[in-house]
Amino acid sequence: MASDQSIDPRFDPAFQRGFGDGQAQRPGVDVSAPERPAAGGPSVNVAASGPVDPLASPSMDADNSRGSIPLDAAYVPVETRGNPWLRALWGIAAALIVAGIAGQWTAIDLFSTGASSGSVVTSYVLPSVLQALAPWFLVAGLLAAIAAVTIKAVRWHPPGV
Amino acid sequence: MFLGATIAGFAGGVAVLVFSAVRYVTSPFPVSSSAGRSVFQYNDQLVSYQYYEVGLEATVIGACLILLVGAVVLGATLRARRVY
Lengths: 161, 84
Fold this sequence. Notes:
Structural class of chain A: mainly alpha
Oligomer: heterodimer
Shape of chain B: elongated
Order of helices and strands of chain B: HEEEHE
């Protein structure tokens, strides 16, 4: 990536990648010119710039090609595709949300019509149990969904980086 | 271990809930004058059979569900494959 072709002519080459390699000169620039021309854009006399090497700090491309310094210690892309735990999290979220909604719906239905069934369990036990557990199911499912989305968002990185 | 403890707590809560429900069904029904169904007259007062009341076991089950979600989130975070 860092080559002579990557020098952006709009900016000072001294502050661009590949400048310190001794061959990074912008095409069309007269290196023997004593000073910067008054017109014609921001060209610069690279020979007069002296031994300034802004690439002394770790560079992504230059240093990685030498295998000395990792890409960037501050930004480590993490792959989330194929993570079975994340898939399980999505599954748990969907199952719990559906179970919570269905439980609440069934509890209301049993409270209103369960007496006609004549069964003690469907009339007296199941409505209370469902009404007590359905909110927990819904909350846990929503938490799982929020956590899954958050993990995906935190681990996301722009394509090509 | 975290996941195992969570599943054990969840199973314990379900077991207590089932035990309590079975005991309610197999015992004489409590009557109430404020909640329930099958209203009938008892001692010159309208009463009905009281609903089964879920106790602390529902809270235990719900808390274990949230802990289960937390365990899976932890696993998903730690399992993330690093790419250099």
